[in-house]
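Lab meeting prep.
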Amino acid sequence: MRRISILILLSIFTVQMYGQEDNAKPTPLPPADNESNTETTKENPYFPKSETPSLTNIKKTEPKPVDFSREGSFSMLPEEFLDRGELYHKKVSKNLKSVTPETPEDRNQGSKTTQNFGDFRINGLVANILVRDHQYQDGDRVSITVNGEIKKADIYLENSFKGFKIKLADGFNKIDFTALNQGTSGPNTAEFHVYDEAGNLVSANVWNLATGVKATVVLIKE
């Protein structure tokens, strides 16, 4: 009976030993999960999470063309290296801004600068001068001088020609027609013709002058 008890105890002890060896075997670990193993941190509201810059996410911006026609456009070159034509255009454009547009009242006053009708060669001893008002006859009057000498102090202009002769000096003969007034409707309007002794037309023109302004023609005696 004692032997039987010893055998039973040995059997129980042997079974327990094998059971401990089975329990001691390591159990395989599950595959690592990046999402589960990643440490999660709370986002700081005062320091927002910044994204890592990427060269593939850079937005391309097209350069805007420069409109040189707009006022205030500039050149990268110093003024002394600019083309003369460009400098001239800049100066003229700047001056044009200060020019006051011509009004109908200005046109009615006539030209305020001397009108030079040119130089003409003429043969003979005298020249025949004809003058008239080529527009509405409104009382325009002129004086005529030759080389500074008064030939006609006051001529009342009509729609028909009035003529007179002047003696020609050798060389240059400068004839000045001076507007004495502008009649009842400005400006002083007149037409003149110059003929040589043979009746050939040497010069002809018209003027629209303000009071006191001259129209000039030069006859060169050959």
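Slide two material, second protein:
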Amino acid sequence: MNRAWTILETLSVLLITVVLAAVSYPVFAGVKREAKIRSSGAKLQQVYMATMIYREEHDGGGFGTLEQMGLPSAYFVVTNRFGLSEESMNSSCGAHWSVQPAPGADVHNFVYFPGDGSSPFPDLAVSWQDRLVLYFDQHCNSSEVDVRNRFHEKLGVGVLMGGNLVRRRGRGDLFKPEFWSAKVD
């Protein structure tokens, strides 16, 4: 018997399809976001390794000024990129309108915490040592989060001087070492 589908059967199939899509969308969006965060962490580790090679080649050791530590200037990191591609220095999470970059910085780039090495970085390096954040990604937040507002809860992905990759969620200022010493998510 060759019987065509009734309109009720067709609507039932469409309704089930729509419900399944609505239920699965948040799951897939969460998986996609987590993949971007992990990719960003992998890129941060790669940049960290390049920085440590630079540090070794420039006889860096101890903690203090950029010169004493053998760390590059922010200008070197932005212009030379340790020979890494521009893509490897950019966040996998992308960027959004609420992120205000530092003057002269590309809106997609990771943040190099030492910056130009001016005060208070040398003091922070001496007191925080391996727990001081070296690079971090401020772009893994939703567009509703203002990363400069210390009252907004935000997510930061960073790599510390000791080489540990960290993810921190909390209130505070991503640009302060205290944010990175908070409890891990």
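Talking points for slide two:
The helical segments are 7-57, 66-69, 74-79, 121-128, 177-180.
Confidence is low (pLDDT under 50) at residues 97-105.
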